[in-house]
TrEMBL record:
Name this protein carries in UniProt: Porphobilinogen deaminase
Pathway annotation: Porphyrin-containing compound metabolism; protoporphyrin-IX biosynthesis; coproporphyrinogen-III from 5-aminolevulinate: step 2/4
GO molecular function terms noted in the UniProt entry: hydroxymethylbilane synthase activity
InterPro entries for the chain: HemC, Porphobilin_deaminase_cofac_BS, Porphobilin_deaminase_N, Porphobilinogen_deaminase_C, Porphobilinogen_deaminase_C_sf
A Gene Ontology biological process term: protoporphyrinogen IX biosynthetic process
Gene (UniProt): hemC
This protein's GO CC annotations: cytoplasm
Catalytic activity: 4 porphobilinogen + H2O = hydroxymethylbilane + 4 NH4(+)
Cited NCBIfam families: hemC
Cross-referenced PROSITE patterns: PORPHOBILINOGEN_DEAM
């Protein structure tokens, strides 16, 4: 194989880890293949200090990478599936989803072992409305304080004493070698994850069949069907990881079980729905659970959130 594969990637530690992971897997699957990284600074990284929901627009982290693909400056882009918008620009698509890492949220603290061990009034850092809604529903006494930045920055802010605990995706911590910082994993029952959490996906040009074939050994079918159902739910609710929508699918044999949740950011109300369907109906399952959430009143909650975040 004479061709080189160029991977467009953000420069954050997690993005670089994921790009290096895909590079290593590609080299392993295709001995002799040349794979290189094309690091770029994304608009989301430049705006790391502003609340994401307020600067608005899904996929802030993704756009620059897509431009590089369209302008043929790179061949593939590696994404956290949780951050990938539902729709792709003309000429691009998602052609590979790798095996999912731990999908749960993780409780990280230097003083306490778990959420339940936090004294009343403790300060918990997260800027995810999804995490905030579920935390406050269970522990209305907690104070949620805004926390952004990449994984290293967030841990540094915890260590500086600004928070009693912070909540992060377990997957990011594990990938970056910070597994020992996880004091307890929060069950999916207590904190339903964001759609796609823990999974890495690969975007490339739709016409580049040579790349599609090279990516095939990295594709993990079980993860892909689960994430397909989750993304269908998100898409139907016009959601992303910056809104209080959670969803999580698991396989029970050849049957998919999808749970979804929409919550008021203050935890006052959590709407839940779930359903099962055959793997072949993954997308329809996502739409079905989303529709059930809408019937329960999810639209009213999301209208307020989108309004505040400046969405249409
Ligand atoms: N929204 C940021 C983001 N996007 C992906 C991950 C890491 C975990 C994953 O792959 O889902 C994180 C950090 C976090 O939420 O703690």
């Amino acid at each position: 194989m004479s061709r080189e594969i160029r991977i467009a990637t953000r420069k954050s530690a997690l993005a670089l880890w994921q790009a290096e992971f895909v590079k290593a897997r590609l080299e392993e699957a295709h001995p002799g293949l040349k794979v290189s990284l094309v690091p770029m600074v994304s608009k989301g990284d430049k705006l790391l200090d502003a609340p994401l929901a307020k600067i608005g627009g899904k996929g802030l982290f993704v756009k620059e990478l897509e431009t590089a693909l369209l302008e043929n400056e790179a061949d593939i882009a590696v994404h956290s599936m949780k951050d990938v918008p539902m729709d792709f620009p003309e000429g691009l698509g998602l052609y590979c989803i790798c095996e999912r890492e731990d999908p749960r949220d993780a409780f990280v603290s230097n003083r306490f072992d778990s959420l339940d061990a936090l004294p009343a009034g403790s300060v918990v850092g997260t800027s995810s409305l999804r995490r905030q809604a579920q935390l406050l529903a269970r522990r209305p006494d907690l104070k949620i304080q805004f926390l952004r930045g990449n994984v290293n920055t967030r841990l540094a802010k915890l260590d500086a004493g600004e928070y009693d605990a912070i909540i992060l995706a377990a997957a990011g911590l594990i990938r970056l070698g910070f597994e020992d910082r996880i004091r307890s994993s929060i069950s999916v029952e207590d904190s339903l994850p964001a759609g796609g959490q823990g999974a890495v996906g690969i975007e490339c040009r739709s016409a580049d069949s040579e790349i599609h074939a090279l990516l095939a050994p990295l594709h993990h079918r079980d993860t892909a069907v689960r994430v397909t159902a989750e993304r269908a739910l998100n898409k139907h609710l016009n959601g992303g990881c910056q809104v209080p929508i959670a969803c999580y699918a698991v396989l029970e044999g050849e049957q998919l079980w999808l749970r979804g949740l929409v919550g008021q950011p203050d935890g006052g109300q959590l709407l839940r729905a779930e359903a099962r369907a055959a793997v072949a109906d993954a997308e329809a399952l996502g739409v079905k659970v989303a529709d059930e959430l809408l019937e329960l009143g999810a639209g009213d909650i999301l209208k307020v959130v989108y309004g505040e975040a400046g969405h249409p």
